[in-house]
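re: that chain from earlier
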Amino acid sequence: MGDFNLALVIVAIVVCVLVFLFNIYLLVNFQHPDDVNQAYFPKVVVILGLSVAAISILMLPADVANRQACRHAIYNGACSLTLPMKDLWLAIYIVDAVLVFFIIPFAMFYYEGDQDKSIGKRIKSALLWVGVTAIVCGLVLGILYGLVGKVDFTVRHLSSTTTSFPSTFDFSGSQQCIGNGASQCSAYSANAASETTWTMQTTFPEYVVALATIVGSVLFTIFGGVGIACLPLGLVFSFIRRPKAVITRSQYIKEATELGKKARELKKAADALHQEERSGSKGRKWRKNVKAVEKELLLLEEDVRALEEMYPQGEKAETAWAMTVLGYLAKLVLGILGLIVSVAWVAHIVIYLLIDPPLSPFLNDVFIKLDDIWGLLGTAAFAFFCFYLLLAVIAGAMMLGLRLVFITIHPMKWGATLMNSFLFNVGLVLLCSISVIQFCATAFAYYAQATAAQEIFGHTLQSLRGIKYLYKYNVFQIAFIVLAGLTFVYYAAFGWRRKKPSAKFQLSS
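^ sequence. v structure.
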């Protein structure tokens, strides 16, 4: 079998099967009771999307392991019996782009369509929206690829005289190259005029991946920058704001009465919006009111959950209160561990990416040393740090969705998640997973050197005409750090405060 790594293939197959089964488990346990035994197409899309996102994250550690299979070859091109990682990367990200821009929007349009319409009309309406999206995306991609779909590599023309091959090599500080009196090699002695720009047309699949990465990088920078701070701090401050003791029955009745009034207000508002929808007046104001009702409903559900925690009922009330206390202690522990990971991420970005030359390889060295202890330990740690960024993206989207009107909320709740929320979050994870891989390939370039991912995301993407300046000047990394710092300041100033009861809800007129 030569250098072919059979163990890597077996592990890859087993991991893919486990990922698929785990995603089915998540879907079954998170789905809303209203979606049981129906909405099968959106469920297939959710499982496929989650599997593609997870596999794409795990492909970078697999790429590193695949490179190790060629460690006995003089150069990687001489090793032809490993996995075709570049082809696999392009395939997985083309599938990613098709899911994000076509299949998931179709599933969402179909699922959210008017239930009074027939299935045929709902499919027709969804296809119409997706068809328009496909035409627009195709035109934009085609025009951009034709005009600026080129990569500009800066190269240096080197030349030297010939010399006879020496029988012995004697190199020193004053004799660094072959040849009498050659104190410097041609690469050092060449003048600035030897530099030139080598332009070539990139392949269309690579260009699609590059543009999808840019779109994902914008979302990843915003949501990930906020989430890298709010994910651990939210858990820590949730422990700080926890209920300290069980409330009295009279307090419970008072709070429950207020929540009942709020629920009736929201039901009245929802009925009014439903009536407007039936009359066909679905304008900008209607959509704004729908988002406001969804946000208030989410806050109401959180208030109900908090009230149930403060006043457990039934025969196992004491057990329920004990589990509540343990749950908040677990949040504190996870928050502290998450804070350590977040600080490590921010420190690594500053030390390795923003400072030129880097002060230290930092986490790259950590992963390499863990690999020396046990082959898969560094790979597992590397995959964990990548997955943590995806969790930060979801946490950031939730936080901004609760505070900004123009961002739609799609919460994930155990046993109460509708398919449209599932589809939205899967689309967000898929879109950001491309950027997470690119970000990790750059942040851990020393650990992931000489991989297919480095070739796609390191050389081609960072040399693409019109896009390379975003990476040359570290625009995304700087914005990520700034948003993380602002979020940390926000939580330090306001995170410890308890939420004030909201006033009477009214629709925007």
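The radius of gyration is 27 Å.
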